[in-house]
Every structure is written in structure tokens, then in C-alpha cells.
Amino acid sequence: MTTEVFRLRTPFIDLMQVLKATGNAATGGNAKWMVEEGRVFINDDAEPEHRKRRKLYLGDVVRIDDRIRIEIHADDQSSAPV
């Protein structure tokens, strides 16, 4: 399984945005299809996630087809002083 890290700069991000931002879905339509087809799982849930706009927070993990694992981490830049 390939592991990717997504750096979160806001308090949360929705599932379809993560799929697009990481390049795992080329378009919003493709992201929607992946979720509707039951290819996406959140954290250790055995059931697929069907909420396209599910909010993801720091520490969440998205799995796609048990081939890709996306870990949601804090953006190091956001905690740096301005």
C-alpha cells in the first residue's frame, strides 16, 4: 500500500477535496464516482464512506481500494510565526 501525506492548512477539509488535491481523482466528478462506488474508507472503518462532503481533520486516514493511504497531517508552515 502506498502512503501519502496531505498537509492540512485549515481546521478541516472535505473528502472530495482531499481526493482531488492529492491527485487521486482528476476531477470532482471522478472523486464523486470513487465515493459512490464504495472505493473510499476513512480511518479503520470496515464500511466504505458514502458521504462525499465528509469533513476530515488532523489524524484522519483515507484509504482508497486498499492501495493508497492518505494521512492527514498539520501543515508545518501554519504553526510557524508570521
What does this structure look like?
With 82 residues, this protein is α+β, with helices and mostly antiparallel strands. The chain has one domain (2-76): Structural Genomics Hypothetical 15.5 Kd Protein In mrcA-pckA Intergenic Region, Chain A (Roll), CATH 3.10.290.10. Helices cover 20% and strands 30% of the residues. It has 2 helices and 6 strands. The protein has helices spanning 15-21, 28-36; strands at residues 2-8, 13-14, 40-42, 55-56, 61-64, 68-74. The strands form 2 sheets. It has a 4-stranded mixed sheet with strand order 1-6-5-3, covered by helices on one side. The chain has a two-stranded antiparallel ribbon with strand order 2-4. The longest helix is centred in the middle third of the chain and has 9 residues, at 28-36. The radius of gyration is 13 Å and the shape is globular.
